[in-house]
Amino acid sequence: MKYSLLYRNGTPETEESFDITYDLSVDRLVRLTVADARRADYFLAILMKPLTSVEDIVYRQEQLIDYLTIPGLYEELRTVFNRYDKVKSDWREMRSVAYPGSTGANSRALVEYTFASLKVTALFPKTIISYFSAIADIINRYPVKSSALRGIGSYCSEMLENESLNELSNIADLFRYKAAENYEFSVTACLDDTLRMISCDLTGLEDVTARPKENVLFKFVGELIGKKRVSDDIILEQDDSTVDNTLAMLNEALRRIDSALTAVTGDVYEIFCGISSELAFFDAALALIERLDEAGIKRCFPVMLPPEADLYEAEELANPMLLCEGLDGSTIRTNSFSSSAPAAGALIHGDNNTGKTTYLRSIGTAQLMAQAGLPVCAGSARISIRRGIYSHFSSAEEEFRAGDTAGRFEGEVQCVAKIIDGLESHPYSLVLLNETFQTTAYSEGAQGMLAILETLPAAKARFVFVTRMTRLVELVTPNPTLFPVSHMTAGFKAERV
Amino acid sequence: MNCPSILYSGKRPEAALDKHVFEDIKLNAFLTDEAIEAVAPVCSREDVLARRALFIVLGSSPELRGRLSRLYDCIMRIRGLDELYRTARSDEERSVIYISIARETSSFVSKAVSLCEGMEERPLLLKNFSDAFAATATSPGFIAMTGALETVLPILERFRAVGTRILGEQLTLTEASGENYVSRIADCAARLGLSVADALRQANSGISGAVDGATRLSAEIIAGIARKNPSVFGQFAEFHKIHGDIYDRALLTYAGEIAFYTGFTEMFDRVSAAGIPLTYCDLCDEPRIDAKEVYDITLLTKDEKKIVPNDALFTPEDPFWYLTGANGGGKTTYLRAVGIAVVMNMLGAPTACSSGTMFLPDRVFTHFPRDDRFEKSGRFLDEHRRVEKILADKTNRSVVLLNETYSGTDEDTAQRMTGLLAEKLHASCTIGIYITHQHGLSETEIPYLNVVVDREDNNRRTYKVEQRRGTFGSFAHDILLRYSLTREQLRERFGDNR
Predict the structure, then answer these.
(1) Pick from A60, A90, A80: which is nearest to A136 by CA?
(2) Is A160's Cβ below 8 Å from some Cβ in B?
(3) In a domain, A232, yes or no
(4) pTM as predicted
C-alpha cells in the first residue's frame, strides 16, 4: 500500500502522456506563475497525464479546496512530508558512513560492517513511528474534508496503536546500543545434503557484559571434588578455516536480520514516501490560482461528467495564457463554448487576427486543467472527461519532422497519423487542430482533412478545428445531417453559425 | 556401468564441425556449449536417421520430453555433487557427499530404465540406452546400494540444522533451537499487511536444497559434527566403503547429449508456435540443396514476428553464389537461414522449411566478421589465414558460407581477393554463398543472388532473395496513402461513419 495525493488508488504503473502543453501555450503560463523550474516541470508533467475518472478528479479538487479554505494546513503538511521524504536519504547516508574503517573484505571486517549497518537500520522504526504521530496530529487538528487527507490521518492513528509495529521497534532496539563483541550469539546453521551451510539465523543473543561473574572459590572447590558441568557442547579449535566459517555464520545471521528489518521498515516507510514530491503539484496549482485571482480572472471547479455524457459547456471561458501578454481579467475577452451530440465537432473559421487560436486554446486549456483536478478559467463549466487529448498546431516555425526527404506537409501527415492511431485505443478523445493541412494546396488539404474529420465520430472523438480553408467549410456545410458540425466564426465574440 | 550414447549408435566420429560454425549461424542461441560439443562430430547417415526417429517420438510425446528433462536435471545434480566429492577434504565429508551421489545415481538409473515406458516402438538410440540401464538396475551391487540407501538417507536428514554459539571468534557446537528473529519480523510484517512479508517468510524457510551459493564447512567443524554423532558417521563411512564403486563418472557425458535433444525440442516448439513449418528433408547423395521457404529461425530470439522465408537452390551446375544488395536487406539472414538448414539436417533434426531435398555434407565452414578472432597480424591476414584453412580442409562435399570476407582491406585488394576465392570455390563445385559489397565483380561465371527492394514502396526491404542483378532507386509516393490516411483506408479501420 502506498498513499498518493494525486491518485485515489495509488500511482498507476503506466500513465499515458498527452504532450499538448506546448501547443496550448500552457507551458508559458506555468513558467510565468511557478517560479521554481523543477516544480513547474513536475506540474506540467502531471498536466500532460489527464485523469480519466470523475472520482479521481474530485479527489484532487477536494484537496485543493481544503488547502484554499484552511489557512496553515498546506504549509504544515508540506513541512512534515518534506522532512519525511528526507528520512530515506539520511538512512542511506548513515549507512554509507557506518563503517568507514577497513578496506579489506575479510570475515572480521564483514561482521563489523554488517553489525554497524544493523545498528543504523535499528534506528529507523522509531523514527517512522514519530512521523506517523506528527502527521496524525496535524490532520486531526484541522477541519479537513478531503478524502485523501482524512484517509492519511486515519491510517497514521491506526498504525500508532499497532502492536506489531511496536514489536518491530523493540526487536530493532536490541541492536541499537552495544557493539558485537558484547554479545554471545546463538545461531542455527542450516545445511544441505553435503554438509554445506545454506543459511544461518540468529535465535538468541546474550549480553556477556551483564553476566554475573563466576565465583573463583566455588569453581576451585568444584574442580577439586571432581564436579564439572556436564554438557554435550563441543568447543572447536580456532583454525583459520573454522574462524572464517564462524564469522561467516555470524555475518549471515546478522545480515539476514538487517535485510529483514530494512525490508519491513522500508515497506512501512514507502507508504508515505514521495508525498512531498506530489505536493509540488499542489504548490504550483495554488500559485497559479493565486495569480488568476490577482488578475481578476474568473475561475471555478468544473462539474465533471463521464466520457459517455459527451458534453462540453462553459460560460465566460477565458484563455489564461493571455496573462503572459500582460492582459488581465478586465481586458481578456471571454466566450462561451458548447459542444454536444449530435455535433461531431466545431469548425472555427474567420478573418485573420480575430482570436480563433486563442479561443481554441481556451477550450483545450480548460479541458486539460479540468482533467488535472484544477479549477478552469470560466464562470461555470460542465465538462465530460476525454480519454485522450490530442493537438496539432501548424506553425511557421515548425521544423520538418520527416527527415530529409519529407516536406512540411509530410510532417503534418505524420502527426495526424499518430493522432488517428491514438484514437483507436482512446475512444471519447478530444482533437484540437489549428490550421492543419494548410501546407499543401488548399483544395487537396481540404479533401484530405474532410476524410479525417468524417472519421472522428466513428472513433467517438470530438474535434475543434481552426481553419482558413474555405473549401473545407464549403465541403462540410452541404450535408449537416450526415456530418453535423458546429460552425463558429471568431470575432471579439465567437458566434455559432 | 555401461553408458551407451544417445547420439551415436557406434563410435563417436573424429571429424567435427567447428564450434564457431554454431556461433556464426547463431544456433548457439538454442544449444548450450556442452550440447554443441556433444553433437559437433559429424554423424553418419544411419545416425541422422536414428536421431530423426528419436525427434519424431519426442515431437509427439510430451511425456517422453518430460522424462528426458528430468533425466537432465538429475545429471546436473550429479555433476555438482561429483565436483564436491572430488574436492572433499576429509573422509567424513566424502562419505556424506557420496550418499547424495548414490541417491542421484539410483534416481538416474531408475529414470533411464523407465524412459521408454508405455512406448510401442522404441527408437534405436533410446532402446540401447534404457536396455543398458535396465541391466545395471538388476545387478546385485546396484540392488544392494539402493537397499542401503533406504537406511542412511533418513539419518542424513538429521543434520539439516546445527545449533551453535558464537562468542568473538569462538564457535561452540550445541543443539539447534527455537524461533529466530527473522521469522518474528516476518510475522510482524504479515500482521501489518506489508507485501514484503511473504518474501521474508520464503527466505526464512531454511533449507532450499540449494547447491549454488552454499558455503563449505571447515574440516574441523565437520569433524566436530561427526564427534557429536559418532555412530551415525560410522554408518556413512561403511556405506561409502561398500558401495563406493557403483557410481561411474561416464554418466556426466549425458549432460551434453540430453541438452541437445531438450534444447532443440524447445526450439521446435517456438518455431511451430510462430507458424513456421518443420520438415525432414529427403536425403540425396549428390551435392545438392533444394529447399523451399527456408526460415532464419534465430530471428525468433529477437521476437521477430514476421520472418520472411526464401528458397535455397544449390545444384552441381550452380553450386556457388555471390549474394549482394542493399544494407539491411536480409543478406546475412539468408546466409544464416541456409546454414541453419544445412546444419540442422546434418544433426538429424527437422529443418525450418516447407519442403526440400538435401545432401549430407562432410563439413560446413563459415567465415563471418568477428573482431575477437584477430591475431596480432591484423584483420586482413587473420581473414586470409582462416580462408586458407578452409580451402585446405574442405572437400567437394563441403558447404562454405562466407560473409563479407576480405572487407578488412583496401577496395582493389578486396575485389581481387574476393574474386580469386570465389572462383576457386566455384571451380571446385563447392556448395556455398559469398556475401559481398564489392562492385566490379560482374565479369564472372558465378551467379548472383540479390536481396529484393520494393521500388513501389519507398525502397522497402522485402527480405526476399532472388537470382538477379541489383536494382536501386528512391521513389516518392502518395503521402496520405503511405500513412494510411486516405478516406478508404480510414473507413476500413474505423468503419463507414455515414
Answers:
(1) A80
(2) no
(3) no
(4) 0.63
The DSSP result for B66-82, as a single string, is HHHHHHHHHHHHHHHHH
Tell me if A282 is assigned to some domain: no
> Can you tell me the distance from the alpha carbon of A233 to that of A239, in angstroms, rounded to the nearest whole number?
18
A397 reaches B (C-beta below 8 A): no
Domain that holds residue A28: 20-177+272-277
Which of A246, A277, A308 is where one domain is finished?
A277
Specify the higher pLDDT residue, A369 or A447.
A369
Cα–Cα distance, A395 to A361 (Å, whole number): 14
Instruction: Give the range with max mean pLDDT: A322-331, B175-184, B283-292.
Output: B283-292
CATH classification of the domain holding A428: 3.40.50.300
Kindly report the nearest CA distance between residue A181 and chain B, in angstroms.
Answer: 6
**Overall domain count for chain A:** 2
pLDDT digits (tens, 9 = 90+) for A205-223: 888 888 777 666 665 565 5
Residue A389 lies in a domain: yes
Can you tell me whether residue A384 is helix, strand or coil?
Answer: strand
Among A277, A308, A333, give the residue marking a domain's end.
Answer: A277
On chain A, the residues whose CB falls within 8 A of the CB of B180 are 188, 201-203
Rounded distance, CA B234 to CA B155, Å? 12
Give B63's Cβ-side CA count (13 Å radius).
7
Q: Which residues contact B219 (CB under 8 A, 6 or more apart)?
A: A241, B89, B90, B93
Report the amino acid identity of residue A442: Y
Helix (H) and strand (E) counts in chain A: 16, 13
Q: Is residue A89 part of a domain?
A: yes
Asked if the interface predicted TM-score (ipTM) of this complex is over 0.90, the answer is: no
List C-alpha distances in Å: A377 to A317, A353, A362, A384. 6, 22, 8, 16
Q: Do B177 and A236 touch (CB under 8 A)?
A: no
Residue A100 CB partners (closer than 8 Å, separation 6+): none
